[in-house]
Amino acid sequence: MADSPEYTPPKVWAWNKPNGGNFASINRPIAGSTHDKVLPVGRHPLQLYSLATPNGQKVTIMLEELLALGHADAEYDAWLIRIGEGDQFGSGFVEINPNSKIPALMDHSGPEPVRVFESGSILVYLAEKFGALLPTTQPARAECLSWLFWQMGSAPYLGGGFGHFYAYAPTKIEYAIDRYAMEVKRQLDVLDRRLAENEYLGGDDYTIADIAVFPWYGGLAKGWQYGAAEFLSVQDYKHVQRWADTILARPAVARGRIVNRVSGNLSSQLHERHDADDFNTKTQDKLVAEQP
Ligand SMILES: N[C@@H](CCC(=O)N[C@@H](CS)C(=O)NCC(=O)O)C(=O)O
Predict the structure, then answer these.
(1) Which residue's alpha carbon is nearest to atom 14 within ligand 1?
(2) Candidate from 59, 79, 102 with most ligand 1 atoms within 8 A of CB, to mutate
(3) For position 93, which CATH number holds?
(4) I want to staple 207 with a disulfide (CB 3.0 to 4.6 A). Which of 79, 98, 120, 202 is the partner?
(5) Position 169 in a domain
């Protein structure tokens, strides 16, 4: 194994220097807001504050799926939170999510506004509110929730572990990359074995478990994450590939993936979404073409 720079941890850790990593400018060892910022509120009861990372996409895909199912009350405003610029530390955002991470949702439809943070919690909240995409009887409900919570526990090994050390850390540390590549491949194999015997993660039906897992592991299988498709031999996970292709073909997924997206083709960036027609008129290619 290649040598790593020698480091002896001090007795007490102190925050005294930038760590050089890609996200050094937004990482802090303390919680709370850094500045006052009132969040905008649009005309729909559901107000989403987010960015099209895999965690953000879960919620926009869910909302688009609910609308596709005919739940007109799932209409929503999606406001852009630029985490690279520290929007998640604004006072209004921290009031909704004390953990300062996207996605965060406000539901203004009842007598008291309801705040919901953590993407898994938002998926369950919306599924229960609209009675959709989460089975109501056992054992299907338990199976769906088990895979949903599997995702919440597993993705930090993929993102914060593998992705961080493979793509973002200032130095390539063989021990860390090896450790997390092994775990991510094990996770892909868990999914592959499940999907070899079942159409979807919960069983026969598409549910919030698929919506949660797809942006992370479907994205990895399709080569969108960390430039690591070849390194992880993702093409070997045939059942994950079949499942990812099936989900990718859903029109609501195609719409949900581009909401609050600020990178990639201009036609696949809808920075904010306030109306269903915005997909036809407000993607960045259209907005740029309109400029004098
Ligand atoms: N467990 C959380 C994770 C959310 C999360 O990590 N969000 C990231 C973007 S994918 C974020 O907002 N990062 C900003 C920061 O760490 O300051 C969830 O699923 O909602």
Answers:
(1) 101
(2) 102
(3) 3.40.30.10
(4) 202
(5) yes
Residues 39-95: pLDDT tens digits?
999 999 999 999 999 999 999 999 999 999 999 999 999 999 999 999 999 999 999
State the pTM of this model. 0.96
Q: Is the dihedral of CA 232, 251, 117, 127 positive or negative?
A: negative
> Cα separation of 50 and 55, whole Å?
9
| CB 97 less than 6 A from any atom of ligand 1 | no
Range of the domain at 275: 261-290
Strands (E) in 140-249, as ranges, are none
* Buried b or exposed e, range 8-35, using 16+ CB within 10 angstroms: eeeeeeeeeeeeeeeeeeeeeeeeebee
169 lines ligand 1 (CB under 6 A): no
**Listed residue (78, 68, 76, 69) closest to 45, CA to CA:** 76
Choose among 75, 62, 207, 66: nearest CA to 130.
66
Q: Do residues 132 and 111 lie in contact, with contact meaning Cβ atoms separated by under 8 Å?
A: no
Domain's final residue, options 109, 130, 151: 130
Verify whether ligand 1 is closer than 6 Å to residue 213 (CB atom): no
215 and 274 together in one domain: no
Pairing assessment for the beta strands 76-80 and 104-107 based on DSSP bridges:
unpaired
**Same structural domain for residues 76 and 57?**
yes
| Residue 291: predicted pLDDT | 78
